Amino acid sequence: MSQDHVDVQQAALDEHHEDPGDLPEMRARFEHNGSPRYLLYTIKRFGFDRDHGFHLDVELVSDALEDGIETVEELLQEGHADLIDIDYISIARERAGGADIVAFHPYGRTVGGLVAPEDSDIDGLEDLSGKRIGVVRRLDKNWILTRAACREFHDFDPDETATPVEAGSKVELTRMIREGDVDAGFQFWQIIPEITETGPYENVLPVSELVQRLSKTDNKLPIAPFLTSGEYLDEQTETVRAFTDAYRDAVDKLVEDDEIWEEISEELMSYDDPEVMRAVRDGWRDMVVRDWDEDSIDGMYRLFDHLKAVAGADALGVEEIPEGTFEVDP
């Protein structure tokens, strides 16, 4: 994705950035190629933030890594953002390392899939050994879940029997897949349709299936929550609550209204292909989690414990989920 297109997306959001006036502000910083931008655009487009008494300031940023930390994480931890989303294993890892961050609402089952050429001999987990497998980073959730599933169901660890190749960003991973630098790559769900609908590639292994197999539950687990700093949550509790209300309004709109997706396709997507747009729309609707409760959190703990037992704390980068990581009812 070119910088010009990133600028176009930001301009589309800025059209709905009215003067906040005296409203409390929440600074949302999200990756320019991440699926939350569809939700954030919808909140701004229909004024759901103002409806609930706050101003959501949205800025799209790079998805690059710096010393193993994503750009959005760094912005939050350095006090330049109030709202981001990352997977809950990363939240636990950063919180265990001393970061003042709290997950306060679910986003969704933001896992991806293994994209391979259509003529590839990779059909599933058992075919990974001996292959060069692209990953954004070796600690990302797609690779950890895959390692756990391989060890649980096939008695091998692809971190040892395959060659994981870190791309450092989603954009670079797509390039590596298309140019054959890797045999296959674990790309994030929202980018997969752009690859599979426009070229000779297929999603040979949806990671969401591994989540369900490993967690042994039919409940759709919110792998990625929204998070903020503990300080912001303490000082702006009502604003955090207002965001969750605006979020639910936007989810309802995106689930029920097909026309808004046509607008999103024009404003935020880097391709003009109705089939890609519909694939992204349907994938988003399947991925998103509107709300959570204590049962959801229990399921997330069970999945974490299972991943730790199978892949080990070293693979997760954290021994346990620290107390206070989740705030179900802020």
UniProtKB/TrEMBL annotation:
<feature type="region of interest" description="Disordered">
    <location>
        <begin position="1"/>
        <end position="28"/>
    </location>
</feature>
<feature type="domain" description="SsuA/THI5-like">
    <location>
        <begin position="56"/>
        <end position="257"/>
    </location>
</feature>
<dbReference type="InterPro" id="IPR015168">
    <property type="entry name" value="SsuA/THI5"/>
</dbReference>
<protein>
    <submittedName>
        <fullName>NitT/TauT family transport system substrate-binding protein</fullName>
    </submittedName>
</protein>
<dbReference type="Pfam" id="PF09084">
    <property type="entry name" value="NMT1"/>
</dbReference>
